[in-house]
Amino acid sequence: MLVENIDKVLSIIKPTDNVLDIGGWAMPFNRANYVLDIGNHETRGIFGSQGSVEEHFSRDTWIIRDLCDKTPYPFPDKFFDYVTGLSLGLFKMALDGSKTVNLNCHDPL
What we know:
Layout: H1 6-12, E1 19-22, E2 34-37, E3 62-64, E4 82-85
Parallel strand pairs: 1-2, 1-4, 2-3
């Protein structure tokens, strides 16, 4: 996430909101309740972290997964209030209840 957007995003998210951080292994968004990335929880944050000081995710809510995997993510529809990520240029997720994932992982932009 762009540094200049962190405070604005944190001000929008309510304490009861469920947040997913896509691709957050190297620099997780600490306000996320769930993180989905290929890297594991134990080696997270090699470039630090963003957002609140306290991590809202845990080892149990850290999902190890290749983002280019075409199968639906392991969450029910409408599970998340917000989805964030450091680089979502190749990612789009509909929050209207669908599991639409548009990843073009192997083609250049």
